Amino acid sequence: MITTDTWLQEFSDYNNIYNINESGHQEITIFKPLATKKIRLLLNNLYDDVPLKFTRLTMCKEGQTEIVVHIDGENSFEIAPHTTRWTDWIDIDIQANDYLSIEIYSPNKTIHSLGSNMSESFTKVHNFTDRDDGFFFGVSAVQAQVKKKPIKIAFFGDSLTNQGFFSAPLSKELTYINRIVTANYGISGNRLLHSGSGKSQWVKSFGPAGVDRFDEMIEEFKPDIVIFMEGVNDLLHPGAGSPISELPTSQELINGINKLNQKCSQHNIVFVPMTVTPFRGNINNGIYAWNPKKEVVRQEFNRYIIQSFPYAVDLAPFVSDSSQTRLEYEFDSGDHIHTSKCGGKKIARFIERNLIDRGLVAVVKANRNLI
């Protein structure tokens, strides 16, 4: 049997969020792409200074009896500050494309180690309060024992990836095509070249620079394909929340993405970068974030991506209006940078066509002798 991640969501330090678990009860429902009879959960307390206590943790398939989850045979336990820990293996008969519901009971009201996903295509969160912002705690990965090694795709980027409006429906569609599992390594506010900085209340959650956290993603998930979407915050944040001195040149962005491509080449990973989408009209920290200089950098960086990477996806023109500097209305969530839920589904289909037309899945399978 092979042990593999079948679901993974990057957590970050949301130190400004309080009472996320006011009810003491959270339910997470996760789409499971692979059949298995054994799974375990990764419990995450990486960014808190106090233990994360679990008085009860259960899981079940829809309509079936709950199974109590243990650590070292105990059904109540705690995760030490700044750590993660795997549960014991659980016997459960999951078929491909089942949904798994996880129930968490914890006395911790304020928890800063959180994941976030706004789409309900792959993961649904219910915390039994009035919150509907997509934040969740406790479980950041699910592993399963399977008979054959799956193809693993990591989505790496910022909030456009993290929110799940394109990555979640794309993940679900891909699992119907082949033996594929995906992981969401998007962090809201994340930049390719710089860690979080500036005056925003969210600055700690922005995480390390993409070039710095990429190695950890490779080591942790061991992907076959990385779908990369980052760079817009490198342009948007400087002068509108972070120091203007952090505004990169196009060459600095090029150097950064080349480092990621080199890391992928060293590990025989297919690198699929997407062009940086427009953000004209966005207001960040009360400041108009776009200017012509930033637009020139974005266009130069995008030209390099298209010319230099064989599997690049030219997403920017697909979502732009006729000026090529703004999001088209049907893709715009309203803040002129994030895509809408409906727009995300169209983006997912656009990316899927690119992946299929270029035969990426077939290439990976051939390279690994899986056909």
What does this protein look like?
The chain has 371 residues and is of the alpha+beta class. It folds into 2 domains: 1-145, Jelly Rolls (Sandwich); 149-371, SGNH hydrolase (Rossmann fold, 3-Layer(aba) Sandwich). It contains 9 helices and 20 strands. The protein has helices at residues 159-162, 167-177, 210-221, 232-236, 250-266, 292-308, 315-319, 341-357, 360-367; strands at residues 2-8, 12-13, 25-32, 36-45, 52-54, 56-61, 67-68, 77-79, 83-86, 90-94, 98-105, 113-116, 123-126, 135-146, 151-157, 180-186, 225-229, 270-273, 283-284, 287-288. Strands 1, 2, 4, 9, 10, 12 and 14 form a 7-stranded antiparallel sheet that branches. A 5-stranded antiparallel sheet has the order 7-6-11-3-13, with no helix packed on it. The protein has a 4-stranded parallel sheet with strand order 16-15-17-18, sandwiched between helices. Strand 6 and strand 7 (67-68) form a beta hairpin. The protein is globular and about 60 Å long. It starts with a strand and ends with a helix. The relative contact order is 0.13. This is SGNH/GDSL hydrolase family protein. InterPro entries: GDSL_Rv0518-like, SGNH_hydro, SGNH_hydro_sf. GO terms for molecular function: hydrolase activity. Residues 155-340 form the SGNH hydrolase-type esterase domain. Keywords: Hydrolase.
